[in-house]
Amino acid sequence: MWRRCLAATLLATSLEVSVSLPPRQPKDTYLQVPEVPEPSDFGLAELLSPLALQDLDANSDSAISETEFVAAAESVVREAAARAWKSLDSNGNQWLDLEELATVVRKSWTEGEGKKKKG
In the record, which residues are listed under signal peptide (predicted)? Predict the structure, then answer.
C-alpha cells in the first residue's frame, strides 16, 4: 500500500513540475540591477555657506556651539525641504501623487543623463 502512495506522490510531483510555468524574468537577468541615476550634489556645507557667522552664533558669544549649529542646520534644511516640496507638489494640494512623483523622477533622470554626457 505504501508503495502505491509513494508512486502516486512521485507521479503527482513530476506532473506538477512538468506543467509549471516558466519564470517571468529570464534567468540570465536575475542578478542584473537597472541603472539608477546618481543624486545631484547636496551637502550641509552648500546649505550653510550663504550664512554668516552671526547667523550661526545665536547668542553672540563669537563661538558656535553644537546647539547653535544644529538649530541653524535644521532651519536651513527645513527651508530647503519646503522649497523642494513646492516644486514636487505641482498642483498645490499638499499631497504628492504618483503623477507628480513620476514627473520629478523623469526630470531627474533626464537631467542626470545630460550631466553625464557633458562630464
Answer: 1-20
Written as nine digits, the cell of 31 is 542578478
CATH class of 42-112: mainly alpha
**Cα distances (Å, whole numbers) of residue 84 to 1, 11, 49, 60, 96:** 72, 61, 19, 31, 12
38 close to 115: Cβ distance less than 8 angstroms: no
Q: Where are the domains of the chain?
A: 42-112
pTM of the entire predicted model: 0.47
Rounded to the nearest 5°, which phi and psi values hold at 99? -65, -45
**pLDDT (tens digit per residue) in 28-64:** 666 665 565 565 555 777 777 777 888 888 999 989 8
